[in-house]
Design goal:
Strand content: 15-25%
Order of helices and strands: EEEHEHEH
Number of helices: 3
Mean pLDDT: 89
Number of strands: 5
Distance between the termini: 22 Å
Largest sheet: 3 strands, parallel
């Protein structure tokens, strides 16, 4: 396994599917990530971390070496001025918002 520029295992950020349910007093929602994503990153020598909507991405961004964006529910096409397909299964906006904040916080690739 390779090392990051810091001489340690590369840190691989993985964003998770989110389901926010404020009416659920016990859990208020859930995060979902298939086991194989973080398992394969670890097997390859990486140090996987799950990025949640509460993650301070400005603090995290300089520390990560890679970012894995798993598939999942659909991004809302209305964010891009388009109509959604009638059979769309929309992801919760917190996932897209978190991924967009992380993208903007990442240093430019060199």
């Amino acid at each position: 396994a390779g090392l990051s520029t810091r001489g340690v295992k590369p840190i691989v950020a993985i964003t998770a599917e989110t389901k926010y349910e404020p009416e659920n007093a016990r859990t208020r929602g859930e995060l979902k990530l298939n086991w194989n994503y973080f398992d394969e990153v670890a097997k390859a020598g990486g140090n996987p971390i799950v990025v949640t909507p509460g993650t301070d991405v400005d603090e995290l961004a300089p520390m990560i070496d890679a970012w894995l964006i798993p598939g999942g529910l659909d991004i809302d096409a209305e964010r891009f001025g388009q109509r959604n397909h009638p059979k769309v299964s929309l992801q919760h906006r917190s996932r897209f918002d978190t991924e967009l904040r992380l993208l903007r916080a990442l240093p430019e690739a060199t």
